[in-house]
Amino acid sequence: LIFSNPTGDLPLSELEGQFVFETLTKAGIKVDHKNKEEATLQYFVENINEYSIFHYCGHACFLENNQNDKLLFLHDNYLSITDLLSHKPTLKFAFLNSCNSGTQTAYPYGELTSPAISFLITGTATVLAPLISVPDEVAYSKAKRFYTQAVKGIPLGSISGFIDFESLDVWENYDLYYRLYGLPEIKIIEK
């Protein structure tokens, strides 16, 4: 399942969503692309368990609102930890390509949470997310590089281009700020 630009203000995320849709479809993976007003909480909760992959390109909301229940903005609402706990998605992989969605925040009772960790603790095997705010161009580039390799059957933890210590290009330095949580041996497709 791909949700892109649910708030309508990230035009490059629409291209990202379309690229991910086309790449996964060509690889034989069942996926649907919901863009803008189609990317709703209702669609997510009613359908998420039909998919093994969730790709989100939009805004994370937990840092902006300082409320640990809110995770990702959708067109009609937001996705919350409560929604994940209630529907227990059994995803193999989630790529939460939204600013700070991998950043853990400590809350009053010492709990650490983030959109990425919330997906992980509710049953998703592997989650990829940025630890910082990333420009839209970088997010789109990372998604393209990641999925181009992932559909070759490479274990997600072995995909190059996310930790490129040799690069001097300022855009490439963002690689250091994407974090893979969970099981690095997971593949999105077996070859």
Can you offer a commentary on this structure?
With 191 residues, this protein is of the alpha/beta class. 29% of the residues lie in helices and 19% in strands. It is built from six helices and ten strands; from the N terminus they run E-H-E-H-E-H-E-E-H-E-E-E-H-E-H-E. The chain has helices at 11-26, 41-47, 62-65, 81-87, 115-121, 136-150, and strands spanning 2-4, 33-35, 53-57, 70-73, 78-80, 93-96, 105-106, 112-113, 126-130, 178-182. The chain has a six-stranded mixed sheet with strand order 2-1-3-6-9-10, with helices on both faces. A two-stranded antiparallel ribbon has the order 4-5. Strands 7-8 form a two-stranded antiparallel ribbon. A hairpin with a 4-residue loop joins strand 4 and strand 5 (78-80). Helix 1 packs parallel to helix 6. The longest helix has 16 residues, at 11-26. The chain is globular and about 45 Å long. The chain starts with a strand and ends in a 9-residue tail after the last strand. The model is unreliable at 163-171 (pLDDT under 50).
Give me some keywords for this one.
alpha/beta, 191 residues, 29% helix, two-stranded antiparallel ribbon, 6-stranded mixed β-sheet
Quick overview:
The chain has 191 residues and is an alpha/beta fold.
Radius of gyration: 15 Å
Q: Mean of residue pLDDT?
A: 86
Derived structural class: alpha/beta
| Strand order in space, largest sheet | 2-1-3-6-9-10
Order of helices and strands: EHEHEHEEHEEEHEHE
Whole-Å distance between the termini? Answer: 21 Å
Gross morphology is globular
State the major sheet.
6 strands, mixed
Give the fraction of residues assigned to helices.
25-40%
